[in-house]
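Quick one - inputs below.
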Amino acid sequence: MEQSPFIEPAFIDIQGVAKTFTTRGGVVHALQPTDLVIKKGEMFGILGFSGAGKSTLLRILNRLEEPTAGRVTIGGREITALQGAELRAARASIGMIFQQFNLLAQRTALENVALALDIEGIRGAERVTRAREALATVGLADKEHAYPSQLSGGQRQRVAIARALVHNPAVLLSDEATSALDPHSALSILRFLKQLNRERGMTIVLVTHDINVASYMCDRAVIMEKGRIVEFMDMKNPQPTSTLGKFFIETGHGWTDQTVVPEGEAV
Amino acid sequence: MFAALITALVEFWPDLQKAFFDTLLMVGVTMLFAILIGTPLGLFLFLTERGGLAAAPNLHRVAGYVVNALRSFPFIILMVVLIPLARIVVGTSIGPKAAALSLSVAAIPFFARMVEQNLREVPRGLVDAALACGASTRQVIRYVLVPEAMPGLIGSVTVTTIGFIAYSAVAGAIGAGGLGDLAIRYGYYRFETSVMVWCVIIMFLLVQVVQWFGTWLGRRLDRR
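Output:
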């Protein structure tokens, strides 16, 4: 796996990370030993079909999944060495969004954003003010009293993004965040993530099975298959060598910043 | 027939009233313990299972066996078995207080399993989202599991309450007091059918009210 020698100091440094588990049928390698370096401020893609191990790799970055081997360092902090309160504090500084949005059905949009503040122990006026700010950032200031069931998919994902932004994280992990959305909602969410990346220098690690998402969004990406990285790709000038890499590049149709999102859609 | 019913109502009013409050007492105490002890027990079962937030498969298995053992007792036998315990705890083996003990012992594991099931219905992704925000297990319980399971939990309280209104009548067979006891003593042993009919009517109304309230509250709280 070649990595440019002149790369900037690693921001996310993944070394020998692996995940195996034992079932009755024997040992399953969800993730083969993997090395990966992601730069600060980068928009990095992890591309592959379902079951390729890309979500496992992503979820190891904030230890929602425990690796069975290897080391993860983010911003100089060894995530895989942390326990208890330290681990929870590190997780709070890493935002994460999901395919199914994972909003609490029994809380309003504002209260969903405030969950992150409840967890941090922030109460009273500051809690409401900060949650409102985050909701305004994603363009949903007027929806604070709406429950998730009253919002569109795109709006739900925006609430989830607001929840992730409350702590102003340096890293955002996106696990198929636009896979459950209509194309126009997806594009709108992707544009918003791009804006976060550009304006705040937020490092975004984006898991997707959609080459169009990776092509549109990412500076670099890895392609995964059967728990291992089969190809590193410069997404601005992709020259795939693996069969899977070629398949992805040949099936993409491409979005651009000029693609117009249809009017009148609540996204 | 109608006249006989009215006569019985007037004649047995004090007995019916006492029986009604005895039933309320038994079921009330039972539900209090079912909720106070069954809820944490259900949480424990849920959290300790393999892959759970506080996975402890061995503890989970032990708790599971205890719950299953208590639940496999036919209720009438459980009551007999618990007579010595009732003497120690409430000082008597008959009456509504003694019955409330047996009913509670039966209701706690029943309710715990329902709580476990309600928690299982909370999507795992919601727990992941809270953990990703830095939540501790305690915070996941407080902010995610219990509130998100609440409509289901209210349904479980309703089902358990109604189930144990019926069980409290079975307890009448060993002199528990309450409406079931009154129905058996007069209706079955003394052929006072009218009294039995009133007991059944009152229990029917009680069940209706509980079900109506449970459904109303569950709907009102649920935002899905």
